[in-house]
Amino acid sequence: MSELVTATAAQLSQRLRAKEVSAVEVTQAHLDRIAQVDGDVHAFLHVNADEALTTARDVDERRARGEELHPLAGVPIAVKDVVVTKGQPTTAASKMLEGWLPPYDATIVERLRAAGLPILGKTNLDEFAMGSSTEHSAFGPTRNPWDLGRIPGGSGGGSAAAVAAYEAPLAIGTDTGGSIRQPAAVTGSVGVKPTYGAVSRYGLIALASSLDQAGPVSRTVLDSALLHELIGGHDPRDSTSLPDPVGDLVAATESLDLRGVRVGVVRELGDEGYQTGVRASFTAALGLLEEAGAEVVEVSCPSFDYALAAYYLILPAEASSNLAKFDGMRFGLRVEPEDGPLTAERVMAATRGAGFGDEVKRRIILGTHALSAGYYDAYYGSAQQVRTLIQRDFAAAFEQADVLVSPTTPTTAFRFGEKLDDPLAMYLNDVATIPANLAGVPGISVPTGLSDDGLPVGFQALAPVREDARLYRIGAVLERLLDERRGHPLLAEAPQLPTTVAQEANR
Ligand code: GLN
Q1: What is the distance in A from the centroid of ligand 1 to the CA of 341?
Q2: Ranges of the chain whose pLDDT falls below 70
Q3: For residue 250, what pLDDT is reported?
Q4: Is 445 a catalytic residue?
Q5: What is the CATH number of the domain that holds 214?
Q6: Considering 132, 155, 241, 320, which one is annotated as catalytic?
Q7: Is residue 342 part of a domain?
Q8: N or C, which terminus of the chain has less Cβ within 10 Å?
Q9: Confidence at residue 1, expressed as pLDDT on a 0 to 100 scale
Q10: Is 179 a residue of the active site?
Q11: How deeply is 300 buried, as exposed, middle or buried, from its count of CB atoms within 10 A (0-12, 13-18, 19+)?
């Protein structure tokens, strides 16, 4: 495997700036890696080699002319296919948008382009970002590079798998209930859900607008900080965008210890229902944080027990409204009924019946019901009250601790099909990640090693709104201590790929 694909974004940045390597070489190495392994991994729905190489060539020319470039110029990136890219297919992994070419770029994509990051392509996800395994993609699942028989998490399984399989050093994900952090956890990558409003939502295909947030996926904490600083900050085109800058996230990764940091272990997250190996890895990580000088305390957030239930009312309610625009009239798929009159209602029904998968339909029905007259107060109204209680729990807990921690997920990556017919079991994957979205607080997942089943485990840290820098500090210290113990970063161990591919890669 080329060392250009195992290098971190920070290392690539350095080598590009020193002109030891060109952006074209770096981009080509990743395109080669994709060609080699993506037939098995299926992280990408679209690869745009020409466009990526054109960007890379442009960066090389500008560098040769001595222009001042962004530190990540020439470092390739993969973008989740729920983020619109001008002229590049954007499907949200749904038949509803198959073949759609957006006429504009999302703000974060504009920022990537302006900084000169070659966009390798668009990554797979559960349809409209609903799911925890990518099994709900209309175009087939992504496989976990650690074990191709297992799920890479979801909804952003494609972005996480691309990073874990060395197909991209960086990726963009979106997190509505855990879709950056949970896939990062089960693929051994780093994933960050920023403070709500800290990264523009303009150009994200909306799932639940009060919960959605885009963020970085990478193999190291520093790489996520570099990307987060680039995509974050105010955007006048997003009415929920915060006015503040994102803070000095890269500097936060330079902290060497955690003296004076109070780490709150959330009693309600991490006990019952959590796999033994996951708990063991979490406890070991806590020990390291203490060694680094952190004070570990226990905090209680009793309303978290109702977070999942509240989320599965609020999310479907918002999603049912957001997805109403896919009606066969304006853009995307249009299916006309085979016989009978061609009324608007019948075209909409035929289009939505054919274009949406089962999980999307399930949530539209749930959401429409929760919002209907007569049920609104009982369901949607109560869920919003629970949301307030969760926010109060966070506020109280952050009086006692600077960051809150838990395992990111109850289990390691499960096998394909294991939870597909049991929506509740699928929803439970996000039991630890959902509270953050309901309160708008930022969260990170950092790999802590392998469970007793040989699969990666993620450690979640949550910080108060606007305090994203704390996540990078605790994440970087934990990563450094773990690397010292292991002698190498977790992801330096080549993830399992089929023998043929692995042999190719090692040549
Ligand atoms: N898995 C969660 C869900 O299905 C989270 C999805 C997300 O964050 N986009 O809703």
Answers
A1: 38
A2: 487-489, 491-507
A3: 98
A4: no
A5: 3.90.1300.10
A6: 155
A7: no
A8: C
A9: 83
A10: yes
A11: middle
40-98 pLDDT tens trace: 999 999 999 999 999 999 999 999 999 999 999 999 999 999 999 999 999 999 999 99
Q: Does the active-site annotation cover 300?
A: no
How many whole angstroms from 207 Cα to the centroid of ligand 1? 9
Please report whether residue 347 resides in a domain.
no
Cα 436 to averaged position of ligand 1 atoms, centre (Å)? 12
Query: DSSP labels for 56-106?
Result: HHHHHHHHHTT----TTTT--EEEETTB-BTTB---TT-GGGTT---SS--
Please give the pLDDT value at position 491: 66
> Is residue 239 classed exposed, middle or buried when 0-12, 13-18 and 19+ CB atoms within 10 A define those classes?
exposed
Residue 125 CB–ligand 1 contact under 6 Å: no
Q: Is 156 in the pocket of ligand 1 (CB under 6 A)?
A: no
**159 within domain boundaries:** yes
Q: Which of 82, 175, 179 to mutate to test the pocket of ligand 1 (most atoms within 8 A of CB)?
A: 179
Does residue 355 form part of some domain? Answer: no
Q: Which residues pair with 263 in a beta bridge?
A: 296, 403
Structural domain that includes position 148? 3-304+388-501
So what's the pLDDT on residue 489?
67
Q: What are phi and psi of 293, to 5 degrees?
A: 105, 0
Tell me if 182 sits within 8 A of 215, measured CB to CB: no
Number of domains present in the structure of the chain: 1
From the centroid of its chain, how far is CA 44? 14
Let me know if 156 is exposed, middle or buried by CB neighbors in 10 A (0-12, 13-18, 19+): buried
Return d(Cα 57, Cα 51) in angstroms, integer. Answer: 10
Q: What is the pLDDT of residue 117?
A: 98
State the pLDDT at residue 155. Answer: 98
- In this predicted structure, what is the pLDDT of residue 486? 78
Q: Which of 132, 133, 137, 179 is catalytic?
A: 179
**One-letter amino acid identity for 55?**
T
